[in-house]
Design brief:
This protein is α/β, with parallel strands linked by helices. 28% of the residues lie in helices and 26% in strands. It has 2 domains: 162 residues, Quinone Oxidoreductase, Chain A, domain 1 (Alpha-Beta Complex); 159 residues, 3-Layer(aba) Sandwich (Rossmann fold). Helix 3 crosses helix 4. The structure holds NADP nicotinamide-adenine-dinucleotide phosphate (NAP).
């Protein structure tokens, strides 16, 4: 049996062109709750390439060589003695905890407390595309007190990883009455194809039309901001409505949910910036939050159920092969550049 595995790594903070395909020791089970996963597919998230570029180095520095990737689908190859919920051969998907990171590699060890069975109707590539983007979106939509039944929701970037999950969850799971989204020109005709007929009620081509001018003032119950434009939409939101961002500066407590060890001074800086944003929103009578994903296994099981019920379909815009490292780096660069990508990009590890 092989004792080394191929893994995408970085040896210093770098853009994807500097990633290294390394031979690492095959990981082994260390704790009773661990499972060893043979990774079949992994998806690329903006957070993966931002971390490799060093944006988290202030509060969560990496040890080199550092591994990349948190979202994957695969098959359990071994289980720790305390694992009862899963068995060898189970097909699973997971958002790895930050400390377990390393989805762009052939095998990884994860805590059984973080994983869920793969939706039965999805391929490994489709399942790998979901965890980070859909869990973040779910947590953002759950932030809105009173729910979204019958409400009007504006999602930026409806064919991005997070936006494509948001349009579907808002309409098909949370019962929103109207979903409005922005996409770039070439994607206008693709929204219904990828998300299903009737999911999005109004599409705005943000390259030719400014949603701040197109959407009537005071008409939205919620804005889901994936593009760091949150407060610029304030006039569009009803009093008592919500803006939830996943990209503007979060509060210290929100960031601590994922990174408990951030320095006190950094937490205070975040709180000041966050409180200013919240104060600006209050002037309009609008609730504001900026959240950070905290992966929860129960919510992964919710995603599985919604996929199987046809309420959530993954949007996989591109699949690249792990065996073509140049293509993998190119795909990571496209995510880093954050322009023109459709849905999720997935690395197929087992051909
Ligand atoms: N807080 C958290 O825990 C959390 C979790 C997940 C993601 N995020 C962050 O959320 C952001 C989005 O993540 P993602 O996974 O959805 O990214 P993604 O799938 O890579 O989507 C980016 C896409 O958004 C579109 N876009 C760019 N600017 C736009 C604009 N002004 N209006 C509408 N669409 C625009 C672009 O497509 P076009 O060029 O074709 O428009 C681009 O390809 C990232 O910055 C990510 O780091 C945060």
């Amino acid at each position: 049996m092989a004792t080394t595995i191929k893994a995408v790594t970085f040896n210093n903070y770098t853009k994807p062109s500097g990633y290294v395909l390394a031979d690492l020791p095959k990981p082994t089970i260390e704790g009773p709750d661990d499972v060893l996963i043979k990774v079949h597919a992994a998806s690329i998230n903006p957070a993966d390439v931002k971390r490799a570029y060093g944006v988290l180095r202030i509060f969560d520095p990496d040890k080199f060589p550092a591994r990349i990737g948190c979202d994957l689908a695969g098959v359990i190859e071994a289980v720790g003695e305390g694992v009862e919920e899963f068995k060898i051969g189970d097909e699973i998907f997971v958002r790895l905890a930050e400390a377990e990171r390393g989805a762009f590699q052939e095998y990884v060890v994860a805590s059984a407390k973080t994983i869920a069975l793969k939706p039965t109707n999805l391929t490994f590539e489709e399942a790998a595309s979901l965890p980070g983007a859909a869990l973040t979106t779910l947590q953002a939509l759950l932030t809105v007190k009173g729910g979204l039944q019958g409400k009007t929701v504006f999602v930026t970037g409806g064919l991005s990883g997070t936006g494509s999950a948001a349009c579907q969850l808002a309409k098909n799971v949370f019962g929103a009455g109207k979903v409005i989204t922005t996409v770039s020109t070439a994607k206008v005709g693709l929204v219904a194809k990828y998300l299903g007929e009737g999911v999005v009620d109004e599409i705005i081509d943000y390259k030719t039309s400014d949603p701040r001018k197109t959407i009537p003032k005071g008409s939205l119950d919620m804005v889901y901001d994936t593009v760091a434009e949150a407060l610029s939409f304030l006039p569009l939101v009803k009093r008592g409505g919500w803006i939830v961002s996943i990209i503007c500066l979060p509060s210290g407590p929100n960031l601590r949910g994922l990174f408990p060890n951030i320095p006190g001074w950094f937490g205070k800086f975040l709180d000041i910036a966050f409180n200013i944003a919240q104060y600006r929103a209050k002037l309009y009578g609008v609730n504001y939050d900026s959240i950070v994903l905290v992966p929860k296994k129960e919510e992964l099981f919710d995603l599985k159920r919604w996929c199987e019920e046809g309420k959530l379909r993954p949007v996989v815009g591109k699949v690249v092969s792990f065996s073509d490292f140049e293509e993998v780096k190119k795909a990571c660069t496209e995510i880093y550049d954050a322009k023109g990508v459709t849905g999720k990009t997935v690395i197929k590890i087992v051909e």
